[in-house]
Amino acid sequence: MTVKLKDIAKHLNVSVSTVSRVINNRDRVDEKTRKRILEALEEFQYRPNEVARSLKSKTTKAIGLIVPGISNYFFATVIKGVEAIARQHGYHLILCMSDEDKEREGEYTDFLLQRQISGLVVAIVGREAGFFQKYKNLGIPVVFIDNLPDIDDNFDYVVIDNVKASRELTNHLIHIGHQKIAMITGSLHESVSDERLEGWKKALTENGIPINKKWVGIGDFKQESGYRIMQGFLQQAELPTAIVAANNLLAYGAMQAIMEAGLRIPEDIAVVCFDAIDFIGLIKPQLTSVIQPAEDIGTIAGEIILRKMNQTKMKVFERIMLEPQLEIKESCGYSKQADKK
Amino acid sequence: MTVKLKDIAKHLNVSVSTVSRVINNRDRVDEKTRKRILEALEEFQYRPNEVARSLKSKTTKAIGLIVPGISNYFFATVIKGVEAIARQHGYHLILCMSDEDKEREGEYTDFLLQRQISGLVVAIVGREAGFFQKYKNLGIPVVFIDNLPDIDDNFDYVVIDNVKASRELTNHLIHIGHQKIAMITGSLHESVSDERLEGWKKALTENGIPINKKWVGIGDFKQESGYRIMQGFLQQAELPTAIVAANNLLAYGAMQAIMEAGLRIPEDIAVVCFDAIDFIGLIKPQLTSVIQPAEDIGTIAGEIILRKMNQTKMKVFERIMLEPQLEIKESCGYSKQADKK
DNA sequence: CTGAAAGCGCTAACAT
DNA sequence: ATGTTAGCGCTTTCAG
């Protein structure tokens, strides 16, 4: 049996409230009794029961986290960011993986709500977020990352400007001489895929390059999907000279297909993508890509939650768009092309 | 304000206990009142407060998880395994990252304890586990993964036999003709590093190959460390023809150093390691390595916790050693060597 | 079959 | 300065 407040109190012939006071450093307590209590606390290795505290204080100091999975380096890094902030403030993380499953996402939402979490950071699967209303009603702060819901703009989020990032990535290709640029993206039911496709279109249009629908591949953010789509491109009469992939796995798949077809990267076909975080440095050719500031996304999301928790007026929303970093490596062939600026 | 049992009871002019009964499907309740209650529950969108339930039931259904970090694919996958089991049983995960810091590990231990977790899965940083005694006293099941504490054998764990795995990995090199085999491992304060070094020694000794202390590099499981140690090897008069690295990052670092020195892998120096989970398939040459069944480690750890929770006698310990998989790829040069069997 | 009441461990008025 | 007591929201005897 673990020792509780009452045990300490009884042992010292004082009241539980006095003990509670010294534990929480509240009010005045006589120095002598304080000392005695402190000693007993130590002697009995007393540790407050946080469940009881939570029930009383109505705050669990738990931050719920719903992500598709953590094998993805991006999400692993975001979580690392949230964890850092949480730890600094005595909060903890309840980790839930939706595994790209809408239903599971909904289940976890209810689950976390019942567990009285103090805040939620979520990367939703689709573009709907009906569940969010519940949180709003309860006054629990929710911060969206990655995909954004397709509702009004009245919510907090931390993302990058995907349209802009994709546009710049594509513009880089155009800038170094490419005209025949294909796009491989994920499901258009996700804002991220959709916006990256949008940025690609924008760049082409702005540069007077017609959009070739045959060069748009819609997949699912997995390597297999990039591979398959690229194979499709390769079977067409006219080949693109460059590929924009909406994430790293799609790019890896495309690269496989290109290399298997006996073509060279970037000489025959250039490849660029999002989030090619090659911490290994051994993938050849190294991928030119737009890198999201994943850890910052996590820390900022955490900070927003903490901030919102201590304010009653939740109507002011923080809509954070961070700047991604364009990292030019080998796969775009930049160094081998003339700079036409 | 969220709706509670009392509100429903009052609304229906029944007692809270009756409402509680239908929620938990306990005892007999008149069909009519049950129906009325069920409807009200639905109407008011009642959701039980799990904190209150936990206080009463003295079980939180929370599994604590302490790992160095989740950027490491191995841990990310272990967690995925634990999550699957937890979810199936209505448990949830509290994720803590020690960041390889002993002190932080200890803090999180206390932290989780106060939060009344039902069980703990932990990858300890060093080999000590003084805190473990606390858990033993409280009757909370703890399962160790990865590193094992340097105490008696009276605890539960799920690991692989590192000595054996490392011995087999090294034997594979010897088998295909190598004699000059160097070892790069992590801190010997960790059982994992130590055992992998042990296995390497064993293989050499068994094959009558003398152990050259100059070919033992002690690093810290990071890529930088592998790079630095390999550079040291390369400066010596005699070069090894093969390297055994205790994890993937050490191997990547070594590969960098080898390639920078203008040497080829595996022609000049072969490289093998642990856990080269190359889900990308683009790292060249592909690494021969011993792969730990990470997801299984997670699920089994989760299952042990659930099992132990429902039994009072905690004295019987589950010591699970899973079989890793030796994956022969390109980096050992197998296909280019004659099989001397 | 249903209700009243105790209590999980703690905090915070309120009283002394 | 310290003690008494009423809950936090729920489950569970124990009566009725």
TrEMBL record, chains A, B:
InterPro entries: HTH_LacI, Lambda_DNA-bd_dom_sf, Peripla_BP/Lac1_sug-bd_dom, Peripla_BP_I
Record-annotated HTH lacI-type domain positions: 3-57
Alphabetical UniProt keywords: DNA-binding, Repressor, Transcription, Transcription regulation
SMART domains: HTH_LACI (SM00354)
Annotated protein name in UniProt: LacI family transcriptional regulator
